[in-house]
Design a protein that fits this description.
Blueprint lengths: L2 E6 L7 H14 L4 E6 L6 H4 L9 H5 L11 E2 L5 E4 L13 H13 L4 E6 L5 H10 L1 E6 L3 H21 L3 H15 L7 H11 L1 H13 L1 E9 L7 H13 L3 E8 L3 H7 L4 H4 L4 H15 L11
Helix pairs in contact: 1-13, 4-5, 5-6, 7-8, 8-9
The chain binds adenosine-5'-triphosphate and magnesium ion.
Adenosine-5'-triphosphate (ATP) binds next to helix 1, strand 7 and helix 11.
């Protein structure tokens, strides 16, 4: 069975691509055939982080049917067992995929023969990002401990939630639902997920049940990255509680990743942070996270620390 994890965050620079590469290296190093897919369309740079020469083929070649199978655009990386589908050299229109194109990509991804697939998504709440989260069903939200980043990741999670509700309705029925919510709960209710869910359950009970099932089926995790020593290590679980209270969405806190200035150096020197600085707190945090993520799929991960 292939496990697909989307990795996204509300804010640019929170560490999505760094985390995707680090997890990819660890999973590949532990013997899992791993594929990274750069879906930060318009700003793809996983190839640079992985020190893969500028890719001659990428996702747009698959979308434009230059290659019929997704496997044909898979690139090797310098890391054994680790492969890449690049989003580089994609043009602007590819940054705004239609829902059908996204579903085509996801179907093709699910057919690939890899033990683990990680999708590096763009920052923010574009429909691409929301839909890839919803289609992959397993997702990692990443933020830094700064209030701006937390605010944005909360917005992203709320947008994922709203997008799912919205997908069950036509434009006009959803508009009517919003109007009912305002009548019932007062101004601004359409912006509050808990009010909208209550309205759905009242007006469309069957859809309410399906949505409850959908949300219960998602495996979402939160990671806080770039924690400095003085930061509150308990912030992550607090955010998850808040999300559950206000959105009714269960997000597991997966853990913190310590800030380390060597991350910058390793990226500039195009070397693997994990290989160059394996005994740092940050490297140890990443190893713990990779084990936890694999563990949540019901498997165990054996990491070679040498
Ligand atoms: N744990 C960390 N410690 C120190 N610096 C870090 C850490 N994680 C990431 N960084 C720094 O943050 C920068 C942004 O990371 P990254 O490119 O992975 O973010 P991103 O979320 O993918 O951004 P974008 O949305 O622009 O693609 C990196 O260049 C790196 O220098
Ligand atoms: Mg990135």
């Amino acid at each position: 069975m292939v496990y697909i994890w989307s990795i996204g965050g509300g804010k640019g620079g929170s560490g999505k691509s760094f985390l995707t590469c680090a997890l990819g290296r660890l999973l590949a190093g532990a013997g899992k055939k791993t594929l990274l897919i750069d879906l930060d369309l318009g700003a793809a740079n996983l190839h640079t982080l992985l020190d893969v020469p500028y890719p001659a083929k990428s996702l747009s070649d698959f979308i434009r049917k230059k290659f019929t199978a997704l496997e044909d655009i898979v690139l090797p990386t310098p890391v054994p067992n680790l492969f890449l589908v690049s989003g580089a050299n994609d043009t602007l229109d590819i940054a705004n995929l239609s829902y059908e194109q996204k579903t085509k990509i996801m179907r093709a991804i699910a057919r690939l023969d890899y033990g683990c697939i990680l999708l590096d998504l763009g920052a923010g709440t574009s429909f691409n990002t929301l839909d890839f989260f919803l289609i992959s069903q397993s997702g990692i939200f990443i933020a830094t401990p700064e209030p701006t980043s937390i605010e944005n990741v909360y917005r992203l999670i709320r947008a994922v939630y709203f997008r799912r509700i919205r997908q069950y309705f036509t434009v006009s029925t959803f508009k009517a639902l919003e109007e009912e919510a305002v009548q019932f709960f007062g101004n601004g209710a359409y912006n509050k997920p808990e009010c909208m869910m209550q309205m759905v359950k009242q007006m469309y009970p069957e859809i309410g049940i399906r949505l409850d099932n959908d949300f219960a089926g998602y495996k979402f995790k939160l990671i806080l990255n770039q924690l400095h020593k003085q930061d509150n290590a308990a912030l992550g679980p607090q955010i998850c509680k808040l999300i559950e209270k206000h959105l009714g969405l269960q997000i597991d806190f997966a853990g913190n990743i310590a800030y380390d200035e060597h991350v910058h150096d390793s990226i500039c020197q195009r070397v693997s942070f994990l290989d160059r600085y394996p005994y740092t707190r940050t490297a140890s945090d990443l190893r713990e996270l990779s084990k936890q993520i694999v563990h949540s799929t019901g498997e165990q991960l054996m990491i070679n620390y040498s």
